[in-house]
Amino acid sequence: SSDLRDTPGTLDEVATVISVHELGAPQIYAQVLRCSEHLVFPLGLQPTSVTQCECAIGHEPDGGVELVCVPCARGTFKVLSGNAPCTACPFEQSTADRGATSEQSCRCRQGFYGSSGNCSECGHGYWCEGGAGRMPCPNGSSTTSIMSSSFEECRCDPGWQPIRSPSGEAARNGTHRCNMCPAGFYKTFFGDDACI
Length: 196
Prior knowledge:
The chain is mainly beta.
């Protein structure tokens, strides 16, 4: 007879299988089973072989012949272990990192903002890193896109010119980047050119 004494269905990559054979004098055999990286034994199943290993939560098969599991790509998640593919986040949402394990990891992607799955375009004059908030461009600047994702996309408005560093480069200090054209100078277009 065989007596398997491990906890069935452990979501772990290692299981010890103990069996007692009673042919003549009882003999006890212990075997350690170890799944490969990013693989686990399925919940509810007493492990008896590494062929039972499946992808851990936040991972999916890479599509090769051998079962190799890789973290879910950005913008996807997987809440259960198994060999099914990861699930895409709802429209206009993504994840900050690979290997997400819940839909709560999904947030508005770059260029959008919002919460509870309601994402809106960032809008002119703002930039959005993704998530719940949006940041306004500094005074005298705006964006050309309604889906800007960084401060670097803020450009000087007409009548404004970039602050210049001592080397003559447009200064980008994160808080203030444009000054009004000085008296006697003008600029009629949007961008980081100097007033004339």
